[in-house]
Each structure stands twice: as C-alpha cells, then as structure tokens.
Specification:
The structure is a single chain. The chain is an alpha/beta fold and about 250 residues long. The protein has a single domain, classed as Rossmann fold (3-Layer(aba) Sandwich). Strand 5 and strand 6 form a beta hairpin. The two termini are about 15 Å apart.
Length: about 250
C-alpha cells in the first residue's frame, strides 16, 4: 500500500537519525484455536515500508512461529540498545491482546507465554532513543494506558507539546476487540494506519503526516467502519505536530 511513497517513517525531522524497529505479527498460534487471518500481513506491510528507508540490520520482522516471547524480547532489547538520542525506535504488534499483555506464538494463559505491557515499557525506558513509538493492533490494547482515556479524542488521548517524544497508538480501547475484515486483507486499524501514512490524512497538504493528523483520521475511519465498536486511542508525551512520515 504505502510501498510507493518515498518518505521516512517516524522521522521527527524527515531524515535525521536512524530507525530501529521490531515488527511482530501473529496469525498462526501454537494453539490453533487462537489463529487469526491477517496479522502477519499487517507486520510484513509495515516492514517492507521501513526496509526502503533504513538498513536491514536495524529491523526485525517476527511472524507466527518466530514470534515467541523469548525471541521478541531478545530482539527488542538488542535493537533498542543501539539507538541514540537522534534515533527513533518502534515496536509494532499485530495479534491477540488481553488485559495488560500481548499474546505471542506460544500463548497458553501464563506469564511465560505472554509479553506484558510493563516489559515493553521497560525496554522503552532503557533505550536512549529520542523518539519512541509503540503501535498495537490487538484486542484491548488500550489497556496499556494506566489512566484510561475518556470519550473525548481531543483532550486526554493526545497530549500537548512536549520535548519528550514517546507515543503509543492502540487499535482499541481497553474493553474492546480489534477486528479483521476479509475485504481489507488487514486488521481494520492497520489498514487505515497504512492508508493514513500514504497521505490520506495529510489535511494541510504539507507532505508531512503529523501525530494529530494521523490519530484524527484513524479515530474517524475505524470508529465509523466498526460502527462504534472499535475506537483507537493515542497518548504519550510528545509534540502533537511531530511528523510520523514525510512523503
């Protein structure tokens, strides 16, 4: 989808610094009853975009059997440790989510088979990266926020200007499921995430996709398509005009 566009993803100034990303998509689980359809495609699409704009050694794509808890955390800690103050880190997860965790390939209802949100936060805190981004397309992914957002997308869910650049975008609120639509061949949230980064949300036509523009677009599109049953959330400590992509 956005493979045709030459921008840099998650580049605060559209070019300065490096991108380090761990991109995870789990469609096929060890417990086949948990299987999903398009999470691996969500991850591969984002990986292909990033691969055009950063060294392959700065990216890790983990899908299905590769996406064990041990491997995901090992790659997160390895790559994020390489980032400096001018760099950006990204953790993307598409798959099953539950209260306070992401379900990796071997998910079995135990802590040893799930990645807690606290483990992700810990990896973020350890990194020296100047910009830190987490994007999740998973059920109940909004529960990663300690203080639950209200129903007003313009106040608590997007913070005001800040020198710190830490952003979380989640596909659904803490009590909601995240949907896959066969006609989209992606998760609903990821489909519009990719479309938005392609330029659909660039309201002022400045060739930059800001946090504010992207979130507003995702909020409207996902809420509308799901008939209000899935509502994305975004929060953190960041400049709301921070460009996520320049195209």
């Amino acid at each position: 989808m956005i493979l045709l566009f030459p921008g840099l993803l998650f580049a605060g100034d559209c070019g300065k610094g490096k991108i380090f990303a761990v991109i995870v998509g789990v469609s096929l689980y060890e417990n086949h009853r948990l299987n999903l359809k398009y999470c691996d495609q969500d991850a591969k699409a984002l990986y292909d975009v990033l691969l055009r704009h950063t060294d392959a050694g700065n990216l890790t794509l983990l899908t299905d059997k590769q996406a064990t808890k041990k491997q995901v955390l090992a790659q997160v800690n390895k790559l994020f440790a390489k980032a400096g103050p001018d760099d950006r880190i990204l953790f993307f997860f598409s798959g099953h989510g539950d209260k306070d965790c992401f379900l990796t390939y071997e998910a079995a209802g135990t802590n040893a088979s799930m990645i807690s949100f606290e483990e992700v936060k810990s990896a973020f805190r350890k990194s020296n990266a100047g910009t830190k981004v987490l994007i999740a397309d998973a059920c109940m992914s909004g529960s990663i926020r300690e203080n639950r957002p209200d129903d007003n997308p313009g106040t608590q869910e997007i913070s005001s200007r800040s020198k710190k650049q830490v952003l979380v975008m989640a596909s659904s609120r803490n009590e909601q499921i995240s949907r896959e639509f066969p006609h989209l061949k992606h998760g609903l949230f990821t489909y519009y995430l990719l479309k938005g980064l392609r330029g659909a949300c660039d309201i002022n036509n400045d060739r930059k996709i800001s946090v504010k523009e992207l979130y507003k677009y995702l909020y409207i599109q996902v809420k509308t398509e799901s008939k209000g049953r899935q509502i994305p959330v975004a929060w953190g400590s960041f400049d709301k005009d921070l460009p996520l992509l320049c195209w």
